[in-house]
Hints:
about 150 residues, single chain, elongated
Amino acid sequence: METTNEKNLATFTHLSTLSQYCIPFGNYIFPILIWSTNKDKSEFVDYHGKQVLNFQLSILLYSLVLAMIAIPIFIITIFSNIPLNAVMNDHDFVMNHFSVENITGIVIVALIAIFIFVGLKVAEFFLIIYASVKASNGEKYMYPLTIPFIK
C-alpha cells in the first residue's frame, strides 16, 4: 500500500510534464528532478517516474520523425513552385506564384504528418491528466505507445 506522500510525488511527477507549456524542456527537467531524488525511497515513485520519462522521450522521438517528414517536403515544394526572382523582387510573390494546382501528393503526406503531430500533442495532454489521476489513486499506469528507454 502506497502512502499519501508517494501518491502525491507520483502525481506531481506526471503533472510536472505540463510545465513544457511555460518552460522549455520543463517536461524533462522537473520529472527527472522529482524521480531522481525519490526513486530510491519508493518503488511506486520509481515506476511512475520511469513511465513519465519514457513517454516524454517517445513523444519527442515521434515528433522528430514527423518533423523530418513535413518540414523538408514543405521547403522543397515552396522553392520548386516559386521562382527565386519572384522572392527577391515581388512583395506579393505567394499570391502570384503559388496555387492549389501545385499541391502534389507528397504535400498531402506532409499535411497528414502535421495533423498527426497535433493529435499527438492533444493526446499527450489528456494522457498526462489521466496518468496523474491514476497515480493519485495509487494505481500503476503505463502510457500507450511508449518505448521503454529507461527500464
